[in-house]
Design a protein that fits this description.
By secondary structure, the protein is mainly β. It has strands at residues 3-8, 11-16, 23-27, 33-37, 45-46, 48-49, 65-66, 79-81, 92-93, 104-106, 115-116, 133-134, 146-149, 169-172, 203-204, 220-221. The protein has a two-stranded antiparallel sheet with strand order 1-2.
């Protein structure tokens, strides 16, 4: 709630900004008032401890009422906002220190609104935690595709709202950049030396009939059988 008071002649103007929209209420000294808004708006509900016993309350708790233990203790689509201290409850107003550690039923505006679901794996039904939910201790306590952001007072990427000090939340893993693929190294083949024949180059050094005058060395032809080759070389037909 933000209040701005100014003097316009004999009028006192009070502007009140309500949550979930921009709404202005003007109150004049003569008792008349006028309101300007851009659609439906919701007033902040006052925090109330309407149940403090064990187990489930007799009837589901309305918005901003506590103490709840899980979502089943809340009306409709409200969620049980788990607290470990005097943290403010989304969508609710009032003295958060009046009942520290009390959990209240509240409305989560968006999927990526920071939300305390539990701690140390409890309540078990809420683990693994979803996007922007806490308090996690490791990646194993987050749903697939999410990681546990270990933090002190850093902002929580991709989430909206005020994170609790030293509370850890499940967030999307930051995409990693793969290492560049190394370029293949070109193989350099040395150019043959002019006039020098490789010892493994095929050569026809005999083309006559019968036995060559000398046994043929490796890769030389034309041979008819192994006896026409040097040493243990064989005639490849």
């Amino acid at each position: 709630m933000v209040a701005i008071t100014s003097s316009l002649g004999r009028y006192a103007v009070l502007l009140s900004i309500l949550v979930y929209g921009s709404s202005f209420t003007t109150a004049f000294a003569d008792g008349s008032s006028a309101s300007v808004g851009d659609g439906a708006h919701r007033m902040l509900q006052e925090l109330q401890v309407s149940f403090s016993g064990r187990g489930a309350p007799p009837t589901p708790l309305p918005e901003c009422h506590g103490d709840c233990d899980n979502d089943n203790h809340c009306e409709g689509d409200l969620l049980c906002y788990q607290r470990t201290g005097t943290k403010a409850v989304p969508g609710c107003s009032g003295d958060t220190a009046a009942a520290p550690k009390t959990d209240y039923c509240a409305r989560r505006p968006t999927e990526n609104t920071l939300w305390m679901r539990g701690n140390n794996g409890r309540p078990k039904a809420y683990f693994p935690l979803g996007l922007c939910e806490g308090d996690c201790d490791s990646d194993a306590e987050c749903q697939p595709g999410l990681v546990c952001q270990q933090r002190k007072d850093e902002p929580v990427p991709g989430c909206i709202g005020e994170p609790e000090f030293r509370k850890d939340y499940c967030v999307y893993a930051e995409p990693t950049t793969p290492d560049p693929t190394p370029q293949p190294t070109a193989t350099v083949t040395a150019a043959p030396t002019p006039g020098v024949t490789s010892p493994f180059t095929l050569q026809v050094s005999y083309s006559g009939s019968g036995v060559p005058p000398n046994p043929l060395p490796q890769c030389h032809g034309d041979c008819d059988d192994d006896t026409q080759c040097e040493g243990d070389l064989q005639c490849f037909q």
